[in-house]
Amino acid sequence: MRQAEIHFKGEKAGLLTQLDSGHFVYEYNDIWMADTSKSSISLTLPKSNTKYESDYLFPFFYNMLPEGTNKQVVCKHMRIDTNDYFSLLLITARYDTIGAVTVKKVN
What we know:
The protein has four helices and five strands. It has about 110 residues and is an alpha+beta fold. The chain has one domain (about 1-105). Strands 4-3-2-1-5 form a five-stranded antiparallel beta sheet. Strand 1 (about 1-10) and strand 2 form a beta hairpin. The chain is globular and about 40 Å long. The termini are close together. InterPro entries: HipA_N1. Pfam families: Couple_hipA (PF13657). This is Toxin/antitoxin module HipA-like protein.
């Protein structure tokens, strides 16, 4: 099992988990859910106390990944399998992303 904290504008919003089976789970944290001023991180992942589950990396997170040559360069340099989307997300979405969401590895 691997996990990553999902931050929205620098604040922890939830937890993304890849289970040993390869399935993915996303859940908002309790503090984020209790604050009515906090929005969803994505229209496809609306605020809910329910855990979101998927056989694949959620499209919202998948669309944060580099593509083409950039993906190949990152994977080669960091020695990541090109199909290991979770590791690629952890490496590329830590600091500087296009939107307000960043991803931090949980040790």
